């Protein structure tokens, strides 16, 4: 069970590698497009600013390497910033173009939730329950209970253009519609994970989500 972790100078590479090694997997960190091209499965993790992340990917030619890899049909996982970078654009750095793999945009949480509702803290940090019931059959969520919690650290969240790609949601005060980038507020919980064909991504950190997160990563290592 081998995975290649993309090194684009953004954050938590070693913690993801250690989590995979804990599961008995082989995890190689690289910025070499040739290694990425030969990877059996690919992980794009990240912590930091959207604009910096895209700049580093483009400087190293990794945006093209990722696109070429996905065309092979092999599995890829985006984590946190790595999920956001898969989208068309972000409000962070106002606006900044992403990889365009998942149609939609990345928007900022609003502290003000409206009349009669308490303000929320941004960034969203801590443990929250994950609802993945809208996408039965998702191999990465096999064995994950409806009551399981995962760990988040983020100030922005993804709004896919197509609600059918939403694989899990989470409620954090903000009631964002994951299916409509033009009416982002006040309708349903924010998108915490997406799944389309051979691409999976999650806003939370599985490598920091203890046994639940390790189970999700194990499922990814077993995806054909």
Structural class, from secondary structure content? alpha/beta
User: Count of helical segments?
Assistant: 6
Instruction: Please provide the count of β strands.
Output: 13
Shape: globular
Helix content: 10-25%
Rounded mean pLDDT is 90
Q: Could you give the order of strands across the largest sheet? A: 2-1-3-4-13-12-11
Ordered list of secondary-structure elements with their pairings:
Blueprint: E1 2-6, H1 13-22, E2 26-30, H2 33-37, E3 42-44, H3 50-59, H4 62-70, E4 76-79, H5 81-84, E5 87-90, E6 96-97, E7 102-108, E8 124-129, E9 149-154, E10 156-160, E11 166-170, E12 190-196, E13 199-202, H6 210-222
Parallel strand pairs: 1-2, 1-3, 3-4, 4-13, 5-7
Antiparallel strand pairs: 5-6, 7-10, 8-9, 11-12, 12-13
Word description of this protein:
The protein has 224 residues and is α/β, with parallel strands linked by helices. It contains 6 helices and 13 strands. It has helices spanning 13-22, 33-37, 50-59, 62-70, 81-84, 210-222, and strands spanning 2-6, 26-30, 42-44, 76-79, 87-90, 96-97, 102-108, 124-129, 149-154, 156-160, 166-170, 190-196, 199-202. Strands 2-1-3-4-13-12-11 form a 7-stranded mixed sheet, with helices on both faces. It has a 4-stranded mixed sheet with strand order 6-5-7-10, covered by helices on one side. The longest helix has 13 residues, at 210-222. The protein is globular and about 50 Å long. Residues 174-188 have low confidence and may be disordered.
């Amino acid at each position: 069970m081998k995975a290649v972790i993309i090194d684009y100078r953004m954050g938590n590479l070693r913690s993801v590698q250690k989590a995979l090694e804990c599961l008995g997997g082989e995890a190689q960190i690289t910025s070499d497009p040739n290694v990425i091209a030969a990877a059996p499965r690919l992980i794009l993790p990240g912590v930091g600013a959207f604009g910096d992340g895209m700049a580093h990917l483009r400087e190293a030619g990794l945006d093209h390497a990722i696109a070429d890899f996905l065309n092979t049909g092999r599995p890829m996982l985006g984590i946190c910033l790595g999920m956001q970078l898969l989208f068309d654009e972000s409000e962070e750095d106002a606006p900044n173009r992403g990889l365009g793999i998942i149609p939609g945009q990345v928007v900022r949480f609003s502290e003000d939730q409206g009349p009669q509702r308490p303000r929320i803290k941004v960034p969203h940090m801590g443990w929250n329950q994950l609802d993945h019931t809208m996408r039965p059959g998702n191999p990465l969520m096999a064995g994950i209970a409806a009551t399981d919690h995962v760990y988040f650290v983020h100030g922005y969240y993804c709004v896919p253009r197509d609600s059918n790609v939403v694989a899990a949601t989470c409620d954090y005060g903000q009631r964002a519609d994951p299916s409509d980038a033009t009416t982002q507020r006040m309708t349903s919980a924010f998108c915490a994970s997406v799944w389309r064909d051979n691409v999976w991504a999650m806003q939370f950190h599985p490598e920091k989500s203890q046994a639940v997160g390790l189970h999700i990563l194990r499922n990814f290592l077993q995806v054909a």
